[in-house]
Write a structure and sequence with these properties.
single chain; globular
Length: 232
């Protein structure tokens, strides 16, 4: 069973050996990622909302604004006027929507007793509590569960789908929970491996396995049947 209590599903193209080889190859090329780039668990939670539909460089600017205005705190975010919060996170894009989503998350955070209160929940309950927040979807929730609470979940994003489908390990159109269960079933509950593999997928997807891939010099070229693939 996975940490969320649902049956594990093993993908036909996935195996623990393959994933650990993949992890070693990507780490050898990109180096250790030391994710998530944040000073506190709460900052991870803020970043998980702000990174929706934008580049991380924009999130860094928004978080710097929050820190400079002393707004990197749940109660401060709830107390500040909506317009001021939106202005602070403007670099992240969709700032009015994200300001409300941040408020929603902060309200739940305070209601549950902050990080320590949420940490008392088991993984399934923690994930469900986050998913109940308006504006928090599976990817955002799992970013928070993995990186802010060090729980054994794997984050499925566009980079994961692109890389694994190009390798021929998945179809690429699997539902979020199904694909997540496939990966978790072969990496078991190794939080460090789940953390590092997701971070390395992001690095590899940004630098090499892009929509129009840069296959020359790719550390996975001997395993990839779509070397020089057309853009997805």
């Amino acid at each position: 069973m996975t940490a969320r209590g649902r049956p594990k599903k093993r993908g036909g193209g996935l195996s623990g050996g393959r994933f650990h080889h993949l992890l070693a190859s990507l780490r050898g090329h990109h180096g250790p990622q030391h994710w998530w780039p944040a000073e506190t668990p709460f900052e991870v939670m803020v970043g998980a909302v702000l990174t929706q539909n934008t580049a991380w460089t924009n999130v860094e600017r928004a978080i710097a604004n929050l820190r400079a205005r002393r707004l990197l705190d749940a109660e401060a975010i709830l107390a500040v006027p909506a317009e001021e919060l939106a202005d602070a996170i403007r670099p992240s894009g969709y700032f009015n929507i994200k300001a409300q989503r941040l408020r929603n998350l902060c309200a739940a955070y305070v209601e549950e007793g902050g990080h320590s209160g949420l940490a008392r929940l088991d993984t399934a309950a923690l994930r469900d509590r986050l998913l109940a927040v308006n504006g928090v979807g599976p990817e955002t929730a799992d970013d928070i569960v993995l990186y802010a609470f060090s729980r054994p979940v794997f984050v499925i994003d566009a980079y994961t789908r692109r890389i694994l489908s190009r390798l021929g390990w998945i179809g690429g159109d699997e539902p979020y929970d199904e694909l997540q269960g496939m990966v978790e079933s072969v990496l078991t509950d190794d939080v460090g491996a789940l953390n590092e593999l997701h971070a390395l997928f992001v690095a590899h997807g940004k630098e090499i396995c892009r929509p129009r891939p840069r296959c020359e010099g790719c550390p996975l070229h001997t395993d990839c049947p779509q070397l020089g693939a057309e853009p997805y």
